[in-house]
Amino acid sequence: MNPETVIALAREGVTVIIMAVLPIVGSGLVVGLLVSIFQATTQIQEPTLSFVPKIIVVLLAVMLFGSYVLSLILEFTFGVWENLGNITF
């Protein structure tokens, strides 16, 4: 296995990870930012006010984007398994 193959595989793996978590983490980030702005303007410092909306939105994002994430991970995994025989050590 040459270094170029390892680097290409690692780069593709990191890209898959980023693409898989981006919709879920991004939605939680946006809701967290909106709740923080709301808390700063109203001066309400209730911890559950920031926690509950983020949990709900992240769970909805997992339900909405779950099939996309699963297909992305499965496509990468099957690609690695198919090309495993072509890798020389």
Short note summarizing the structure:
The chain is mostly helical and about 90 residues long. The protein has helices at about 5-40, 45-85. The longest helix is centred in the first third of the chain and has 40 residues, at about 5-40.
Keywords:
single chain; 89 residues; mainly alpha; 87% helix; elongated
Number of helices: 2
- The SSE string, one letter per element, is HH
User: Which structural category fits the helices and strands?
Assistant: mainly alpha
Mean pLDDT: 91
Broad shape: elongated
Largest sheet report: none
Measured by DSSP, the beta-strand proportion falls in under 5%
The counted number of beta strands is 0
Give start-end ranges of low-pLDDT stretches.
none
Question: What integer value in Å does the Rg equal?
Answer: 19 Å
Helix content: over 70%
How far apart are the termini? 4 Å
